[in-house]
Amino acid sequence: MGGAPAATSAAASGTVIGLDIGGTKTRGVRFEDGHVVADESVGSSNVQNVSREEAALNLAELFARIGGGAVAQVYAGAGGIDTEGDAAALEALIAPHAPGAKITVVHDSRLLLAAGGASTGVAVIAGTGSAAWGRNGQGEEARAGGWGYLLGDEGSGYWLGREAVRHSLRRMNQGLAPDELTTALLRSCNIDDPNKLIALFHSPETGRRYWAQQARLVVEAADAGHAPSQALVEQAGRDLAGLAAQSLRKLGIQGPVILGSGLGMNVVRLQESFKRSLAAEAVTDVRVLDQDPVFGVLQLVAEQEQP
């Protein structure tokens, strides 16, 4: 996925901790003078996905691994940071682990754009959830999507997992035997009948992360030639491109567009659909992120220091 960038400015001197807080995990990297000295991951500390108590425990575990203490800055990107209140709530969870540090909390798409080496453009998250965020040369910002799994998250891991369930239930209603995707889904869920998917989907024992993890079954079936799965992955790419195009139009720019997160960085079929859809909108500067978003922290810290 790419290593950490070397220190390129005085703004990266000292100790900086970067946090990438997703729906399934929290990744923390400790930079000393721009170089990685610790890199650890724990469970999610996003309070939209886990309880405040679980988020606090996961952050405590993370800082125990990467170290707290004398830290100049903590720069955190997280999904669901839509208001100043959202940012303040996460900052309050981080603050006890880095006393005296400057703490900045932003939407995680900002990390992605910076990790792609761009200060302007549009970043598209395609992971457990989905969202697009961008900025133009005048400092104007635009968002699209990021509404959460109950309202949107098209093209995300959760969306693909849910669509696998819906595909299986439609076949059941039509009296058709389980196909490759349904068979794989039943095996993964450890059940023996598509009808049981209904109760399992609504069960408190499963949730957003559980169903997002089933996206891999759709990708695997698509790669094996299963036409309905291929259609789902390609639709995911088109939907993600739609989020990017909305943000580009709001900002009055043509790119770059940077695609990242788990699905975006690793699923070639989705990437190809994404690029084709944007090409139809005359957007040609489309990049797939080649390093993890948390490594965008050094650029963001440097940008903060610029007059």
Summarize the structure.
The chain is of the alpha/beta class and 307 residues long. The protein has twelve helices and ten strands. Helix 3 crosses helix 12, helix 4 (157-173) crosses helix 8 (215-223) and helix 4 packs across helix 9.
Describe the model.
- By secondary structure, the protein is of the alpha/beta class.
- The protein contains twelve helices and ten strands.
- The chain has helices spanning 52-66, 84-94, 108-115, 157-173, 180-189, 196-202, 208-212, 215-223, 227-251, 261-266, 268-279, 297-305; strands spanning 15-21, 25-32, 35-43, 73-78, 102-107, 121-126, 130-135, 141-145, 257-260, 286-288.
- The strands form two sheets. Strands 3-2-1-4-5 form a five-stranded mixed sheet, with helices on both faces.
- A hairpin with a 3-residue loop joins strand 6 and strand 7 (130-135).
- The chain is globular and about 65 Å long.
**Radius of gyration computed on alpha carbons:** 20 Å
Which sequence of SSEs, written as H and E, runs from N to C? Answer: EEEHEHEHEEEHHHHHHEHHEH
Strand order of the largest sheet: 3-2-1-4-5
Q: Give me the count of strands.
A: 10
Please estimate the helix content.
40-55%
Strand content: 15-25%
* Annotation field: number of helices: 12
Weakly predicted, low-confidence segments: 1-11
Terminal-residue CA separation: 32 Å
Overall average residue pLDDT: 90
How many strands, what sense, and barrel or not for the largest sheet? 5 strands, mixed
> What would you call the structural class?
alpha/beta
Which of globular, elongated, flat, extended, rod-shaped describes the shape? globular
The oligomeric state is single chain
